[in-house]
């Protein structure tokens, strides 16, 4: 075997073209024997992917289904929405569609964006704990100057506060920003770098720092995000009438409430990031369809379900998503198919991130109602037999 590295074809000036993409597919096919015909079938202009991907080679075509109407009574999202879900999991769209029917027949979902906050969290390093503590006081006294330095890098991002956390000779600073309609990770990183450079230049010790001390917990779940918010904290809630629950889901509110107590205990036992059923399912499908950063599902799926059995026998159901990271500008939201899916929701472009966040939360609630009811009613397995991948004769192929 040769020690020489064989590089993937690249054109330094015109790397996002159909021609160079075809060359890369031929390169890969010749070395692996794979036929890449479908990878090379797409309608988008490759030049539009610059800034979204390197070594553009083709497009992964993920099936998109519509669920709805999803009826929302939010502060930003109001009316009936048809939700595009990109997935290869049979039954998922049908399940969410059923949950949306239930919620619509009960008057819809009430949604609330509670707060917004995106973080970058540098750590400053000192010789001992006292120096680190005194540095923290220095930072508090100069917040206005630090804020000015950070905001010189962005028109949209606004530094709201700086949380501080002490570990031995280390001082972790968690910079908290609002970022408008952008997800804001890169924006907050650039702004925080400028702020840290200002701190180093003006502090008498000129301390050294690392731009991320890992308590911003980018692309991974954390308890600090659950408590303090990352992205948007959004609540979706509904009162579900017992007679509608029986008609649509085949379960009654009292049985559903009793099962909720058991699943709450199970989530606690497991140390789960979400005491509900499957928020990641709906969020991943929505994220892929609308050009969100799919890795943000790692944070965004965290959720807290809270329910009440009402005196009249109806069922109050809410889900709080404390770290929902979404955008309607930037990233993949401007790509053609993803923009079309955002347009389906009336959420394409500036001014719609809060609206989109409310739609995401309402979609999650619809999925929670459907799956939790299916487990109790015994429909969970049979629905996958009917719509999904559990069809007879396919087990061997999956294995």
UniProtKB/TrEMBL annotation:
GO molecular function, one term: hydroxymethylglutaryl-CoA reductase (NADPH) activity
Top class in the EC scheme: oxidoreductase
Gene3D superfamilies referenced in this protein's UniProt entry, alphabetically: 3-hydroxy-3-methylglutaryl-coenzyme A Reductase, Chain A, domain 2 (3.90.770.10), Hydroxymethylglutaryl-CoA reductase, class I/II, NAD/NADP-binding domain (3.30.70.420)
One GO BP annotation of this record: isoprenoid biosynthetic process
Pfam families: HMG-CoA_red (PF00368)
InterPro entries: HMG_CoA_Rdtase, HMG_CoA_Rdtase_cat_sf, HMG_CoA_Rdtase_eu_arc, HMG_CoA_Rdtase_NAD(P)-bd_sf, HMG_CoA_Rdtase_sub-bd_dom_sf
Transmembrane intervals: none
Family note: Belongs to the HMG-CoA reductase family.
Stated name of the protein: hydroxymethylglutaryl-CoA reductase (NADPH)
Organism, scientific name: Sinimarinibacterium flocculans
């Amino acid at each position: 075997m040769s020690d020489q590295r064989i590089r993937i074809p690249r054109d330094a000036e015109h790397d996002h073209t159909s021609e160079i993409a075809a060359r890369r597919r031929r390169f890969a096919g010749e070395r692996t024997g794979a036929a890449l015909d479908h990878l090379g079938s797409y309608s988008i202009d490759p030049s539009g992917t610059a800034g979204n991907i390197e070594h553009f080679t083709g497009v992964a075509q993920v099936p998109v289904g519509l669920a709805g109407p999803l009826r929302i009574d939010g502060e930003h999202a109001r009316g009936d929405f048809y939700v595009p879900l990109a997935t290869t999991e049979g039954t998922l769209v049908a399940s969410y569609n059923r949950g949306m029917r239930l919620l619509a027949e009960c008057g819809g979902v009430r949604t609330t964006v509670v707060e917004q906050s995106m973080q970058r969290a540098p750590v400053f390093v000192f010789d001992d704990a006292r120096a680190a503590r005194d540095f923290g006081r220095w930072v508090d006294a100069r917040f206005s100057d630090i804020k000015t330095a950070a905001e010189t890098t962005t028109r949209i991002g606004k530094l709201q506060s700086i949380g501080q956390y002490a570990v031995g000779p280390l001082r972790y600073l968690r910079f908290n920003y609002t970022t408008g309609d952008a997800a804001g990770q890169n924006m907050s990183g650039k702004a925080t770098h400028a702020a840290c450079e200002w701190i180093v230049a003006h502090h008498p010790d000129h301390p050294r720092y690392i731009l991320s001390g890992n308590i911003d917990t980018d692309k991974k779940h954390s308890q600090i995000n659950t408590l303090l918010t990352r992205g948007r904290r959004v609540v979706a809630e509904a009162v579900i009438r017992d007679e509608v629950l029986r008609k649509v889901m085949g379960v009654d509110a009292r049985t559903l409430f009793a099962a909720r107590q058991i699943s709450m205990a199970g989530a606690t036992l497991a140390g789960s990031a979400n005491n509900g059923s499957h928020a990641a399912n709906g969020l991943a499908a929505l994220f892929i369809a609308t050009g969100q950063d799919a890795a943000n599902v790692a944070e965004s799926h965290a959720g807290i379900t809270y329910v009440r059995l009402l005196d009249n026998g109806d069922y109050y159901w809410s889900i709080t998503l404390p770290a929902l990271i979404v955008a309607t500008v930037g990233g993949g939201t401007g790509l053609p198919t993803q923009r079309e899916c955002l347009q389906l929701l009336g959420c394409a472009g500036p001014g719609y991130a809060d609206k989109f966040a409310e739609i995401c939360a309402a979609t999650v609630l619809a999925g929670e109602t459907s799956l939790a009811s299916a487990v109790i009613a015994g429909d969970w397995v049979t629905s996958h037999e009917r719509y999904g991948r559990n069809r007879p004769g396919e087990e061997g192929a999956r294995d």
